[in-house]
Amino acid sequence: xxxxxxxxxxxxxxxxxxxxxxxxxxxxxxxxxxxxxxxxxxxxxxxxxxxxxxxxxxxxxxxxxxxxxxxxxxxxxxxxxxxxxxxxxxxxxxxxxxxxxxxxxxxxxxxx
Length: 112
What we know:
The protein is α+β, with helices and mostly antiparallel strands and 112 residues long. The protein has one domain: 2-Layer Sandwich (GMP Synthetase, Chain A, domain 3), CATH 3.30.300. Helix content is 49%, strand content 17%. The chain has helices at 17-25, 28-41, 43-47, 49-54, 72-80, 82-93, and strands at residues 55-61, 64-69, 100-105. It has a three-stranded mixed β-sheet. The longest helix is centred in the first third of the chain and has 14 residues, at 28-41.
């Protein structure tokens, strides 16, 4: 027999899967992770083909998008385009999730 866990509303008993997923989607860390995943999948559309080869989104820190660039020169380019990157990221996400862009320099992770 499945165990029931205490619910956030203080009641005990089984919950519908949709209710559980709605609760999880509201968790800030999960929501940010889902946003970064979506941006990573559509990054080329956000920054363009060439820039997508030289940088990648890492995470959202509050409403600041952290982007890793492969060199200082590419980091400068991203900083120059930061407002445009934020606008396109928000358009991709369908909401105003990104207020600013912060860039770090380091090797971008290899893409499959």
